[in-house]
Design a protein that fits this description.
With about 450 residues, the chain is of the alpha+beta class. It contains twelve helices and 17 strands. The radius of gyration is 22 Å and the shape is globular. The termini are close together.
């Protein structure tokens, strides 16, 4: 990466003020602190400047002003997964949360969204067109970051990664030009599908929808004291489960909040959550082996797909979270025992959620994109809520204990949308895809103007 000319903060600020991109905020300006705060409020961002963009023209002006001032550019919509960005002392943070909007094609087979659009808005629009989308597990997740980083949703084992179904994008490149990416630019479209925010500042994204409006979805829940029975039963069930079933197993510590169903408030549970893309009788047959263990709560039923955006009960709005993840093969009984020792009913664990996500199916079949597959049978995701520094330290410790418990079964790969810290980014890709992605990044941005949370370095 070419080194930019160093300038003092005051001279950089003067350059930015002179060029005057719309929505510019420098340190000390009203609005700077709010715009610099990501969704994960444990991450402190102090960029050299922030631009609150509302249109493509704003993005172009911001990129050109940043390069003139010797700054890099980090696009950010909702601010999910902001941790890996690190220091932003020489970075203009380009917020695109104001660039929203959803439109469906006339036949409903594709959707186009603005850079700051949230999944809830897309789910609602798709419902009106009688189609569904490969949305995330929470309604306030941003579509663009989720999509270009992969996108594992409740239909993933049957219908693959969201990134594999991107068909077009508008983005502002590092030189401030506007590019249209579609099938006429196969190299860029390939890189867009899983290459993260390394190619350009995406201002608009188009992707395929799904031709159904209901599925069988819900939760089976037991008191956490049943975890030693339920976990191996679910793992055995996943070995033969057809790809029309996308489920996860969760060890939960639910808060005593009114939005939590009354029977579950303030309790520790083991739960199987998911969606089955089949008819009611076939779904009942598939669930029979799990229902044989007499769940205390069983909500699986025919469900309109818009309801699935809140199926996981993930926190909404800015939240102080600590996360850890890994990709693993199915653990043996030893692995189950190790997991129970750190997160089971007798463990002193601070984490509200430890999740095992069933992979395979379409996620294991190579697709045309930088992120071709997700290597592993399960994704492990550990989540803590860090209200203060002491709690954060405890959460980090417990997250490490969970991922460490299953480390002997780790594949060595990563799914970057689940990674909230610094990792070897190349571990998410095959060696061939990594080399190709670096070549494309270098051709588009030879001096490394763009700063992605999971950065693909230029070839220099």
């Amino acid at each position: 990466m070419t080194t930019r000319t160093a300038e003092s903060p005051s001279s950089r600020g003067a350059t930015l003020r002179r060029l005057g991109p719309a929505g510019l905020h420098l340190p000390g300006d009203p609005g700077y602190a709010a715009l610099s705060t990501p969704w994960n409020t444990t991450v402190e961002q102090r960029p050299a400047a922030v631009v609150d963009a509302t249109c493509t023209h704003d993005v172009v002006a911001a990129v050109r002003a940043a390069t003139a001032a010797g700054l890099r550019v980090a696009p950010q919509a909702t601010g999910h997964n902001a941790g890996p960005l690190g220091s932003l002392a020489d970075v203009l943070l380009l917020r695109t949360a104001g660039m929203t909007g959803v439109s469906l094609s006339e036949d409903g087979r594709s959707a186009t969204v603005g850079a700051g659009t949230l999944w809830l808005d897309v789910v609602d629009a798709a419902s009106g067109a009688r189609v569904s989308v490969r949305h995330g597990s929470s309604p306030d997740v941003g579509v663009v970051g989720y999509s270009v980083g992969g996108g594992i949703g409740w239909y993933a084992r049957r219908h693959g990664l969201q990134s594999s179904h991107l068909t077009a994008a508008e983005m502002v490149l590092a030189d401030g030009s506007v590019a249209r990416v579609d099938s006429r630019e196969p190299e860029l479209l390939w890189a867009l599908r899983g290459g993260g925010g390394n190619l350009g500042v995406i201002t608009e994204l188009t992707f395929d929808t799904l031709p159904f409006t209901t599925c069988v979805a819900g939760m089976l829940a037991w008191d956490v004291t049943h975890a030693a029975t339920v976990i191996p039963a679910w793992l055995e069930w996943t070995q033969d489960a057809p790809e029309l079933a996308s489920t996860s197993l969760q060890l939960l510590q639910l808060p005593p909040f009114p939005e939590v169903p009354a029977p579950l408030r303030g309790r520790r549970l083991v739960a199987v959550i998911g969606a089955l893309l089949t008819d009611d009788d076939a779904a009942a047959g598939l669930l029979a082996a799990l229902r044989a263990h007499s769940p205390e709560l069983d909500t699986f039923t025919r469900t309109p797909t818009p309801a699935l955006v809140r199926l996981s009960m993930d926190p909404e709005g800015p939240t102080p979270v600590v996360t850890g993840s890994s990709l693993v093969t199915t653990p043996t009984q030893e692995g189950i025992d190790r997991l129970l020792a750190v997160a089971g009913p007798d463990a002193d664990c601070s984490l509200p959620a430890v999740e095992l996500v069933h992979l395979g199916g379409a996620l294991a079949r190579p697709a045309d994109g930088a992120l071709s597959t997700v290597p592993g049978e399960l994704a492990v995701l550990a989540v803590g809520i860090a209200a203060d520094a002491e709690t954060a330290a405890r959460c980090h410790q417990d997250v490490d204990r969970v991922t460490g418990a299953l480390a002997p079964w780790a594949t060595g790969g990563q799914y970057l949308n689940f990674v909230g810290g610094h990792v070897d980014v190349s571990s998410a890709y095959t060696p061939e895809a990594w080399d190709r992605l670096r070549r494309i990044r270098t051709a588009l941005d030879p001096t490394g103007v763009l700063r992605a949370n999971h950065e693909v370095p230029t070839l220099t």
